[in-house]
Amino acid sequence: MRRAVLRVGDYLHSYAARLAASVRPVLRLRSDRRWEVDAWRGIAICIMVVYHLVWDLRSFGGYEIAVRSGFWGVWQVVTAGLFTILVGVSLTLSYRRERESQPQGSLWGTYVIRGATVFTWGLVVSGVTFLALGPDRFVHFGILHLIGVSIVIAYPLLRFRWLNLALAVGIIGLGYAVRALSPEVPWLEWLAPTPGRGVDYAPLIPMFSRVLIGIFLGNLLYPRVGARWVWARLADHAVVRALRLMGQNSLLIYLGHQPVLIAALFLLGVAEW
User: Fold this and answer.
1) What gap in Å lies between CA 244 and CA 86, rounded to an integer?
2) What are the two backbone dihedrals, phi and then psi, of residue 271, each rounded to the nearest 5 degrees?
3) CA distance 94 to 90
4) Domain extents for the chain?
5) What span, in angstroms and rounded, lies between the C-alpha atoms of 197 and 132?
6) Measuring CA to CA, which of 35, 39, 41, 56 is 20 to 30 A from 49?
7) CA 218, 115, 209 angle in degrees (round to 5)?
8) How does pLDDT run across 51-94, given as a tens digit for each residue?
């Protein structure tokens, strides 16, 4: 019993430490990470900020912009897709590093802690948007909730390549079937598309399919720990370095960019409550 209590205590300590570290600013580029993955994550952050600026102009500035359809609808799909695919790629890379240092035994606890950390920040976003936007518009199950759950349930699949691609196709197809049921079963909103579920809505089906595609690509592009891209000299280009730094601070930027954007719009007189 005492051993179990100590083990739980260790997990809670690791969770608290990771939660604090997850939003600690990275001021200098870390060289132990894949530069191209961080750069792509930086690109995803940039296009996300642009989309949310457009969303804020519509929501608070009164501009008639179709943010869920047409050009901006596609922009939103690309943004969310890029983020979630990169989650899958990153999971394969982290799994290989962990396995290199711990060839035997389960890594389940490590990935539960990682998933719980991201999911916790998703709950923070839900709480803040509930207070700011009200019960009808707050973030019910957003991108951080999705990533947190995906990290945990993807763990058993991180060793595989083609299986993940097949599962991704199956989940995309399942999404169309479950879509017809979800309006009749409101508690399934976290699992399958439910109309009118506030902003930043990312149900597990079909969004988890993109994480699986990322795992497939990660195993395809990085079949071994030391695999490198041939154009590595681009890593030190000034623009790429800026993107890499944004990528390494992606969670912090995600959590802070909306208050900054909204405050700026109000200070400039563009928005009104």
Assistant:
1) 13
2) -110, 155
3) 6
4) 50-267
5) 16
6) 35
7) 45
8) 999 999 998 888 899 988 899 989 998 999 999 999 999 999 99
